[in-house]
Amino acid sequence: MLGSKDVSLLHDFAVVCREGNLTRAARELNTVQSAVTQRMKRLEDAMGTRLLKRHSRGVTPTEQGQILLRYARKLNTLVADATAEVGAWEASPSGAVSIGLPPSVSTVLTSPLIEAVKTALPNVELTVAEAFSGYLSGWLENDEIDLGFVFDRAPGPRTMVSPLMREELYLITLPETARRLPAALGIGDLCSLSLVGPSRRHGLRRDLETAAEAAGRALDIVLEVDAGYQLIRQVLRGVGSCVLARSAVMPELQDGTLAAVPISNPRMRRTVCLARKREKSDSYLLARIEETLKTVVTELVEGQKWPGELVTEQTSPLPSPR
């Protein structure tokens, strides 16, 4: 009986019938005539009947062979169609992908990201969600997003992390407040100001409090806001100042409604990373999206549209779709 392991014999059989000659078929199949003869014998043994008639001019299919040839041609067509469909999908994969961005990253990245994915991968259904980095880590673990931009994240047993760029953190405040401050701030200067910030579950808040405690001081957090846009709105209203990267407030810095004051003691920096779950490491679609994201980030940083410096560590190559 013909089994799945014998499917390749059907391809060879179709070639033999098309060429009508074992020698020509061997050349077509890039082998020798004796190998073709042996494979046709295997096929006849598997089918339990004679499939080819030998004569002086070559070979022709028997009546049973003609029946099998119809199916062999259908199978070859199916294989060709499958190959074409897979190739088309690889050229422009389709599917739904969700990406989580912290507010400070979203401000500078969302529009270029959407345009790049639309251009490079037009068949992808893209969803962009915004939340603080601490929340995004949980969303990633719970499969609520496929990829997440997070800060200062190390790889874990279940999470792959690619560092992308590093950015400085600044005191973001009203221009009139900035004019009263030193050109570069220390932790003591921050502790003397009314601050608006995220809750303690977020790494930035913990880092600031650790630096303050090391200096024997305490932060004056007058308002906790776990929503990036609303946090900036409170600074604009004069409720307090905050510590953010310049990327989070580029429009406000450009129009002069907010000012950024450097922090030098201690110098505050963070690494922007792209994370996804290890169990999705073989996803060709996510690899293509990740490749597109990294290209966009590189262009933004090199074009000085995202203040910072690129991380030069080597990252994993694009997995093979096959």
Which key phrases capture this entry?
322 residues, alpha/beta, Arc Repressor Mutant, subunit A, D-Maltodextrin-Binding Protein, domain 2, two-stranded antiparallel ribbon, 12 helices, 13 strands, 45% helix, disordered C terminus
Helix content: 40-55%
CATH topology of the largest domain, by name, is D-Maltodextrin-Binding Protein, domain 2
Q: In percent, how much strand structure appears in the residues?
A: 15-25%
Under CATH, the homologous superfamily of the largest domain reads: Periplasmic binding protein-like II
Q: How many angstroms does the end-to-end distance come to?
A: 30 Å
CATH class category name of the largest domain: Alpha Beta
- Cα shape: rod-shaped
Rounded average pLDDT: 90
Structural class of the helix and strand makeup?
A: alpha/beta
- The helix/strand order is HHHEEHEHEHEEHEHEHEHEHEEHE
Instruction: Specify the number of helices.
Output: 12
> Low-confidence segments, ≥5 residues, pLDDT <50?
314-322
The number of strands is 13
Just name the CATH architecture of the largest domain: 3-Layer(aba) Sandwich
Instruction: Using the CA coordinates, give the radius of gyration.
Output: 31 Å
Q: Number of folding domains? A: 3
Biggest β-sheet: count, sense, barrel?
9 strands, mixed
